[in-house]
Amino acid sequence: MRPFSLDTTPPLACRLLIGLLLAITLLITGCASHKSDAFSASQVPPGFGLKVYRHLEGSRHTYFILTPQGELRFAGGRPALMRIASPVMTLTPAQRQELWAIVIEHKLLDVKGQGFATGKQATYEVEISTGKTLGDKDFRVVDDRIPQGVKLLHDKLFDYQAQYRYAKDPTGSVMPAKDQGQ
Questions:
Q1: What's the CA gap between 140 and 88, in Å, rounded?
Q2: Which of 159, 42, 170 lies closest to 89 in space, CA to CA?
Q3: Listing from the earlier edge strand, what are the strands of the sheet with 49-56?
Q4: SS3 helix, strand, coil % of the chain, rounded to 5?
Q5: Where are the beta strands (DSSP E) in 135-175?
Q6: What is the predicted pLDDT for the residue at 5?
Q7: Phi, psi for residue 84 in degrees, rounded to 5
Q8: Of 103, 113, 135, 160, whose CB has the highest number of CB atoms within 10 Å?
Q9: Which structural domains are found in the chain, ordered by start?
Q10: pTM of the model
C-alpha cells in the first residue's frame, strides 16, 4: 500500500499536455488578432513591398511592383497580364509612407481573399510584404466586394507613375486610364 502524501504535483505527461494546450491556445488567439494592429501607420517597415494587379472588364490590365528598396515598376495591357513590369522610378520615403498608411488605415493586412466572380467587373490581386513572415499578405478580391483601400492603393500607385512619366514626357504619350474613378 502506498503511504498518504500531500504532494499534488501532476505527473510529467500531464504537465506537458497542459503546457501544449496553453501554447495552442495562445497561438490561436494570436492568429485571431488583426495583423494590421501589429504595425504602426507612422513607421514603414524596411521590408515593405507591394504587387498590385488589376483587371477591369474587357482587356484593361495594370500591374505594379514596389520593391522594399522603393523601386516602382509598372505595366499596362498585355505586359501587365503577363506580369512583366518595367522600372519607372524610385519612390521617396514620403511616398512610401503614404502607401503604407493606406495599407494600415484600411487594414489591408487583414483582408480575406475571395474566389472567382461571375460578373468580373473588376479583379484585384494584391501581395503585401512587410519583411516579417507573419505580416505578409496576399489576396484576390473581385467585383463589388473590393475594399476601398485596395482601390486607393492602386490609384496612388497609378498617380505616382503617371506624374513621373508626364514630367519626363510633357507630350502626354502615356494617358491615365478613363476608369481611374472606379
A1: 25
A2: 159
A3: 86-90, 71-76, 60-66, 49-56, 122-129, 137-142
A4: 40, 20, 35
A5: 137-142
A6: 54
A7: -115, 100
A8: 103
A9: 38-164 (3.30.1560.10)
A10: 0.71
